[in-house]
Write a structure and sequence with these properties.
about 75% helix
């Protein structure tokens, strides 16, 4: 229930501020003439004008905090100049001061505090006889003002901290998305290179064997059939490797044979054997042991040899 009420208040700040203004204004209307205002300039009609003018601007306190405080300070000064005694509506000044501290810079907060202190001093000097001890009254008003401003400044700092956390979270999310996009682009580039190597090697072997089979078809049918079988075997191998590479772009539930490991130096003898079977004289000499070679280095060496056929 409280969470719903809080969410509703955040969605309708103007209605909430109107309620705050009513809370400062209604007690003055309901209590009636309990203040010695009859001898003041304008009497009670002007006093009610001051009360309304002191409370109504609070409706816009969040949108224009500094302007609202300036209006209320001006009304308070006119009230003081007309020798109108303080009312409950004058407490709206503290509400406006809190709003300035919570929503504006610290320079405006400091200026607001000095304005409130000047107002407290003027009140004590004008109505010294109404207070048993003017110094104590001034100190009490100063403490109330300082507490209000400190609380408002802490609210502003907390909002700024949460806003910075949200901005940092958005930046981190954006960086993660960029890293993921870079990883995808790099993986696609690697797949494109591998597919080029597979297609370039196997298709060239298939073309040579197909041309040889066509040339030997009449003179040596046996070798022609062997060449055709080599074309078929090479084509199947090319399809298998292409299927394995394209399987990287699929979901993780692809069959195990489509997720076979990348070729390495240890697979070079099989590659050479296929090329020799296709009728190309190739001699393979390894100058180092194939065990313990990095997977990336092994794949690069395999593709280099495959390109040279």
């Amino acid at each position: 229930m409280l969470a719903f009420l809080w969410a509703w208040m955040r969605r309708h700040p103007r209605i909430v501020d109107a309620g705050v203004a009513a809370l400062f204004l209604l007690p003055n209307v309901l209590t009636g003439r309990v203040y010695p205002i009859e001898q003041a300039v304008g009497g009670w009609p002007l006093a009610y004008v001051f009360m309304v003018a002191m409370c109504i601007p609070l409706v816009w306190r969040r949108r224009w905090p500094v302007a609202v405080f300036a209006v209320l300070a001006t009304v308070a000064f006119l009230q003081w100049a007309a020798n109108h005694y303080l009312t409950l509506a004058d407490a709206a000044l503290w509400c406006a001061a809190y709003t300035v501290a919570a929503n504006s810079s610290r320079a405006y907060t400091a200026l607001t505090f000095l304005t409130m202190e000047l107002g407290a001093l003027l009140v004590v000097l004008r109505w010294a006889g109404a207070f048993p001890d003017g110094a104590v009254t001034f100190v009490w008003m100063t403490v109330c003002t300082l507490t209000t401003m400190v609380f408002g400044d802490s609210v502003r700092s907390r909002r700024a901290y949460y806003a910075e956390l949200e901005a940092r979270a958005r930046r981190l999310e954006h960086e993660r998305e960029q890293e993921a996009q870079l990883a995808v682009a790099e993986e696609r580039a690697r797949i494109a290179r591998d597919m080029h190597d597979v297609v370039a090697h196997n298709v060239s072997v298939m073309v040579v064997q197909a041309e040889g089979a066509a040339y030997l078809m009449d003179t040596d049918p046996q070798r022609s059939r062997t060449a055709v079988q080599t074309v078929a075997t090479t084509g199947r191998q090319a399809l298998a490797e292409m299927r394995r590479l394209l399987g990287v772009l699929r979901s993780g539930d692809a069959p195990a044979d489509e997720r076979a490991p990348q070729p390495s130096i240890a697979d070079l003898p099989d590659l050479v054997a296929r090329v020799v079977a296709a009728g190309h004289p190739v001699d393979l000499q390894l100058c180092t042991a194939t065990e313990g070679v990095d997977a990336g280095v092994g794949l690069t060496a395999y593709r280099a040899v495959q390109e040279r056929r």
